Structures are given as C-alpha cells and as structure tokens.
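Recall that a protein's primary structure is simply its ordered list of amino acids. Everything else, from secondary elements to tertiary packing, is in principle encoded there. The following example makes that idea concrete.
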Amino acid sequence: MTKLKVGLIGAGGIATSVHIPAYEAVADKVEIAAIADVAYDRAKAVAEQSGIPAVFDNHETMLAETDLDAISVCVPNKFHKSAVIAALEAGCHVLCEKPPAMNQTEAKEMEEAAKAAGKLLMYGFHFRFQSETQAAKRFIDAGEFGEIYSGRVQAIRRRGIPGWGVFTNKELQGGGPLIDIGVHMLDTALYLMGYPEPAVVLGKTHQQIGTKKGVGLLGEWNYQNFTIEDMAVGMITFKNGASLVLESAFAANVEQRETMQVSLMGNKGGADIFPLKMYQEKHDTLVDITPAYLPKVPAHQAEIHAFVAECMSGDISDHYAKQGTSIQKIIDALYESADTGKAVYL
C-alpha cells in the first residue's frame, strides 16, 4: 500500500490530542480518511479542523462506505468491543484505547475476532514506549536483573478525579482508577516481566473520597453520581512464582499530586522505572545505576507509529491481543475479589 488509510471511531479528547496529531506526524505514510462519532457536530468540527474528508454519525456506515486499512477506537470502554469487532470484520487493523474492554469475556471475543480476520489488534498502552521502559527492557533481556520475582505498581493521584467525560460512571467505564490509570502501570510491569500467567488474585476497593464534594485538581467531579471506586489495592501471584502488589487511586490523602511508578526486584538486580534507576551488586559493591541522557520520547506518538509500522509491514503479531485478554482477566479478578472478599484462583 502507498499510504495507510485510517479512520477514527470517536472524536473526543484522546482522538484530537493524541491519535490525529500522531498520524499527522507521519503524513507520508498515513492518510486520515474518515471519522465517526454519535455526536456528529463534534466529528464534523474535528474533520474540518484536521482536513478529514469523510464524516459519519456512526461507525457502521463509515466502515461500509469508506475503504479503510486501519481504525483507531477512541470511545468509552463500554463501546470498545462492538467498535473493534466491527472494524476487524470490515478488514481493518485496529488500535483500541485502553483498557481493552469492560471484562475478559469481551477481550477474548476481540482477540478471537482479530485472529479470525488475520488483522492486528493493539491496545493503547503507551507507557511501554517510554524511553525508561525500553531501557529497562534491554537490561532485563540481557539478564541484568536475573529472575524477576517481585514487583510493585502505583498509579495514585492525590485529588485527580477527572472532572470531564464518563470516568466516574461504572456502567460506561467498568470501574475507576484501577481500569483507567492502574491498568497502565500494570501493563508496564507485566510487559517487563514477560507477561507471566496469573495464578491467584486478591483485591480490595475503597470509596471514601469520591462521593463527597472536595478540591479537584482535574476539575470538579460529579460526586453525586460517583459510581466507581476511588482506590483499589491488590496482590497478584503468578504461575512462575512471581508476585506483584498494586495500588491505584484517583483520590488519596498522600503528598504527591500524582505517582505513576513500577518497581521490580530480581535476584540479580532491580529498578524503579519512572525515572529509571537500577540497583545491583557488582564486585562486592552495592551500586545504583542511573542512565544518562535517555531520549525524551513522546510515548503516545511512539505507540501509534509502532502500530502504523506493523500494519504496513504485513508481519502481524497476535501478542498484543493476547496480552490484552490477560490483563483484563487480572482486572476482573481484582474487582471480583473486592466484591466477594475472597481470593480468586485463575
């Protein structure tokens, strides 16, 4: 193909601030050919601003009437599955924003649809593409950490409940900080650990702050219709013997405005990833290793450019879709454990 013809399903903030600029940055390889949103006026305004030739009020018509090679899915979580499967069945590669879906059943259906179509299904886990993550991955792949047996992930905001969109609506999102920001750090840890298979999951959720009026660092949220957790904690053990502790919150009484961190421990070395600092014992000496001059990588853009490159290569991998199902299984188990008060055995 000369250029990858891309369509967007959803014309909201993630489409306009991330997907469209990233595609425009590789305009020699990509043509944004169409956009669809149930809010047609918004889609039309975005199309006019970005020079997108075709505008639709539903993705079904867009897929039927436009010849597209790939789709970005930028809609609330509840609508991921239907949009992704429709795009795959129309013969398009798909980049879907995180999390994969509302639950593991949907994610598995999406994975199977990608396999049946022979198309790429990739999810928007852009923290994988941070220079710190990629540097740590090189050290891990070279054996510098040895066996990674334990980890900790944190995605914690002091008062970072989004004051826009549907982030506090469980029916449309499937959950709160765990499924929205915790999933990013969870994916980063699993990616660096080689995506081990989960064995046992124990989770607990809290709703202590979000249902009350308070100071909002990301705008004023609708505390009267707050149907998600404001904090989730959990522990995951894996079939290879490793373990992972997770903390995720939109609102917590902590010092920092936001902490997004992955910490890993192996029997030869460990690391905190953001920023990257590694810890080892060498020549009878404990050493801390801090990389110098890591490039500043726009991770969202790197993720989308990786998607474009794989679409155009013809060498389509199924590991993104499989990993999406795996992480969704863990999220489901954390919520199930929180609901039942019991550990979930997978």
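Residues 4-125+301-316 form a domain with the Rossmann fold fold (CATH 3.40.50.720). The chain is about 35% helix and 25% strand.
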